[in-house]
Amino acid sequence: MGALCCIITRNAARGEAVTRRVRLERDTVWLSAADLAALLVGLAVHVVLTRAFTDGDYGRWVLLLDLFYVTATIVDLGLPTLIGRDGERLGSGARDLVHRCLRIQIRFALPIIIISGLLGWIWVGDSTPWLVASLILALSACVQILTYAHRAALRALGESRQEALVRFVDRGATALGIVLAAYQFGAHPIALALATFLGPLGAMLIAIRLGEARLSLASEGEDLETSRAEGRALVNLGLPFLLAAIALVANVRVEKLMLGSLASTVSVEIFQIAWLAFIAGYAPILSIRVVMLSWFGEVRHDAENMWYRAKRSAILLAIVSIPGFFIGGWIGVEALTIVFPDYSEKATVVFSWLLFAWILALLASVPLTLVQVSERPLRYAALLWSGIFADLIACWILIPKSSFPAESASFAAIIGAAVVLIASSFEAWRLHLVDSSEVVAEP
Q1: What is the pLDDT of residue 440?
Q2: Distances (CA, A) of 99 to 69, 103, 107, 159, 163
Q3: Residue 76 and which of 144, 148, 177, 404 are 20 to 30 A apart at CA?
Q4: Structure confidence at residue 395 as a pLDDT band (50, 70, 90)
């Protein structure tokens, strides 16, 4: 891995990376391939964990991870999204923006680690080992967030291939550590938590090395609002994206958290197994969105060009959605049956329903990103939260009286995804009408 980093760094030093620009198809393929590889590795990890844990402890572990991913997102502060949006136009100024963002994020990290670790232990822990494990897992989640600044810079400067490497190291090192820890110590929560920390730590070191090398070679860019903003001003600019970042993380975990609160850890386990197959298809959606953010961001003040790119993206996603639904569904069901035979009977039912939520989320990608790069990004966060609130209400109504809570949670996921698609489509169309009227009004 070190040799690969050196090769990439030397290529950048020769100037090969300087001319790279964001490309929707190419960059999406890089990030999606990394996500797919990471998910396959992660699948093996969950096979190990389901075999190691007993008496609902696997469900407890899942709930802790999901809780910490949600709370640690506060450390994000929406700042990596600013980097991803403006990095290409800032050019050499992107490096200073990355450093300013990290200084702010690190200040927030320590209290988040302590508070979320204690909350996690109080919720699902019942012993000192689980308390220590909770704090380590909270630390791991925050360190992973701290890699986002350099990852966003790499993506914005056309180096999604390098960000793909960072993503894979994150998952790969964690997977290797967990397999070794489970082999040596069984289901000991502290050992498994320390193993989970290996991936984010390695990813952070590589992201810094690759990111700094690429940022140092960027040419002079434009003077934007993010060029000089410091402290509170920068946090205020990132606030809409922070709300959106929390929503994105909560959006794929809210059902499990609600199952943990309203049902049982066994229901969490069933939903988690189905969710593993679902997230294999959902991760490429997130990759598409982050690439579109940079791609649309390049021309966000050129309405005609931006809407051309939006139409091209929408057509591409509509074409992909049909084979994705049927082929992905078939592969997912087969994989669950083979890999998780003890859970497959119920998990495949849940996964089949989650496929409908997947296709709705895919189709919502273009309108959501258009709103995200608009002059009012707070509306983007509001759209995501509208889906989460709809999901929460549906969970609250459907889960308590259900004989199959995990299936009811999948119905709630469909409702939430449908709300986001409908609301974002209306908002994107409104923006299009506004842009069209402004063009007509120009002399």
Answers
A1: 42
A2: 23, 6, 13, 19, 18
A3: 177
A4: very high
Rounded distance between C-alpha atoms, residue 124 and residue 107, angstroms = 27
pLDDT tens profile 227-259:
777 888 888 888 888 887 888 788 878 898 899
Q: 3-state SS string over the chain?
A: CHHHHHHHHHHHHCCCCCCCCCCHHHHHHHHHHHHHHHHHHHHHHHHHHHHHCCCCHHHHHHHHHHHHHHHHHHHHCCHHHHHHHHHHHHECHHHHHHHHHHHHHHHHHHHHHHHHHHHHHHHHCCCHHHHHHHHHHHHHHHHHHHCHHHHHHHHHCCCHHHHHHHHHHHHHHHHHHHHHHHHHHCCCHHHHHHHHHHHHHHHHHHHHHHHHHHHCCCCECCCCCCCCCCHHHHHHHHHHHHHHHHHHHHHCCHHHHHHHHHCCHHHHHHHHHHHHHHHHHHHHHHHHHHHHHHHHHCCCCCHHHHHHHHHHHHHHHHHHHHHHHHHHHHHHHHHHHHHCCCCHHHHHHHHHHHHHHHHHHHHCHHHHHHHHCCCCCHHHHHHHHHHHHHHHHHHHHHCCCCCCHHHHHHHHHHHHHHHHHHHHHHHHHHHHHHHHHHHHHCC
For 28-74, write each residue's pLDDT tens digit. 666 666 666 766 777 777 778 877 776 667 888 888 888 888 888 88
